[in-house]
Amino acid sequence: ALEEALYKLKQGEISPVIKAGPGYYIIKIIRLERNPQFSSLQPDVLRDQVIEIIRLRKERERFDEYLDEVFKNKVGYSIPRTFILVLQNLKEVYVQQGIESNGLFNAETMNGVKIRCYNILNDTLSVVGNSYWTVENVIDKLTNKFVPVAKADSSTIPKILNSQIQELVQQELLEEEALRRGMDQKPAVNEKIEMWRQSVLASQMKEILRRKTGVTDAEIFSFMKSTESLGEVPQVQIRQLTALSLNEVKTALTAIQLGLPFEKAVRLWSVDTVTRENGGVTDYFPITEHPPIGELAWKIDVGQMYGPVLLDNKYILFEVLDKKESIGIRDTAFAIQFEKAKLRLLTLKFKQSMNSFLAQTGEDRGFSIFEDRLKNIKVTPIPMMTYRILGFGGKIIEVPFVDPQLDWLNVEPPKTKIIP
Length: 420
Description:
Elements: H1 2-8, E1 18-20, E2 23-25, H2 36-39, H3 43-70, E3 76-78, H4 80-97, H5 107-116, E4 124-128, E5 131-134, H6 135-142, H7 157-180, H8 187-212, H9 217-226, E6 235-243, H10 246-257, H11 262-269, H12 273-276, E7 285-286, H13 293-299, E8 305-311, E9 314-324, H14 332-365, H15 371-376, E10 387-391, E11 394-397
Antiparallel strand pairs: 1-2, 3-4, 4-5, 6-7, 6-9, 8-9, 10-11
């Protein structure tokens, strides 16, 4: 309706009242100019784009008519008072944080909203059919849903929040209608669901492995040294008491707590003849050596005591005497390099864990790889994404992204279970 009215106007003219969608408009043409993008297109390309726009508009119109029919006797709305409270907190948190690149509903912002709304988290925000969504339910549903908004233009947040909740409610009602019609039993639908189900399960399995993968500071220092991003690994000197039984360590520890010097406790109870002669004092050694003693000593302050630590069937109690840190070890530049090395090492260890797990699982369950067929699969090096058009202008990714996993085929399965 607006386009038809605009095309009839000349520059400087004012239109009559125009009804378009849910509103009424009065328009004045201020300036007319050609669109350089569309005017540069070839006629056939421009025609295809116009057809696409018209098709999508007709689908939208048909979709709205369908929604009116489907939702005629269904219930779906938000509680105004609760909505306003959530909206106010969302605006305040987002403007305060201003994380534009991650969208309005990024995890950090929504976590801040949840904290601010702690006293109303169990209040009903939306009613959908026979179910009730609490404030916490809706916040969780919206978290990480990418919707960009400029920090300086927070006036659009009320409209965005309303439309997103409305979309969630409509999707829930459409899902109920689809189940009522038995669409979940259709073979074509089941085939797609099964494909996505396997993808989700695989992603969850990867997440379990990722959570089980960790790196120590000593490993990071060793990795940095191996990649020549660290000149010298920090060193520590400790006083160490080594005992054969836990009771001996407890006895020594009790004596130390009662005032006996650590050095004398070493001479009385330590079984390590090398260090016992000099009161348990070790030479300086890199924190990457004698794991986990080196790393533990690096983490605690000079003068502190730690233990007992069970190592090679012996119990070790130690005190940090001194540390030799590399030049610049606490600098900002080093901290950045350290974090980069940590992320890189985590990635490598996760990949190793994944390959070992797949090799182990493959050995348990059995598998067959037809190398000739694998080599004959033609793939394109061009990045691409295929969407499946659902109708009514909606679309989803046709298939889940597949993360190739072939390195594990040449990995010898470890004896110990990666995941019991």
